Amino acid sequence: MLHFYYGPGPNPIKIALFLAETGMPFEAIPIDTYRGAQHEAAFRAINPNGKVPALVDTDGPQGIPATLFDSTAILLYLAEKTGQFLGETQDRPQLLSWLMFVATGLGPFSGQAVHFQHAAPEGLDYAVNRYRREAERHYQVLNDHLDGRSFIVGDRYTIADMSAWGWLDRAARVMKNEDRPLERWPSLARFMDMMNARPAVERAHAIMNGHAFKTVMDTDARHAMYPTSFPPVSKGTVS
Questions:
Q1: Which residue ranges does the record assign to the GST N-terminal domain (predicted)?
Q2: Is this model's pTM higher than 0.85 or not?
């Protein structure tokens, strides 16, 4: 049995999409990150980094339970376990390359663009510009690659497409105040239209909506999400 630990966000929904595409049986276990559940000892035993998603496969290799964290690692594990969405053998180098492009570039820069535009204190113009422009640069790289292509790797739907979709689905947050955030990148817009037409996308969103997570970014949520940037206020402090 797969135990899928998830919360709201672009990385968990990638795993939800894989599970929806394959129909694999799983238990969805919500981790309310705005309430700080990712810092509890029981979850840290599964992911020492205190992030979602995480996965425990009680029927791991040779019958030994497997514990995984990081969406890219989980996608690779599940794809190899099922033999699905890996592309052709000759596509393996490109599959790994584009997975890492999302994991080390598109994802982190998009995430930081969201943070500095929506959560950080005002006045950090350099950081806003830095991460927003880098997110846009990664959009352009992927847009150029998808020109004339249906899929990111080879001519098949793979976990690279799922991984990119998870972050591109948040383009409206990354490209703050833009009504049509992918308009400047027509190949990305076409790619997202194709992805969102897949029936499994609706099922993935249903998985993610299976729990009423806290959504208000108040002081406690900021501390839970960004503890090094927003430390808790001492109860004895007088302002």
A1: 1-86
A2: yes
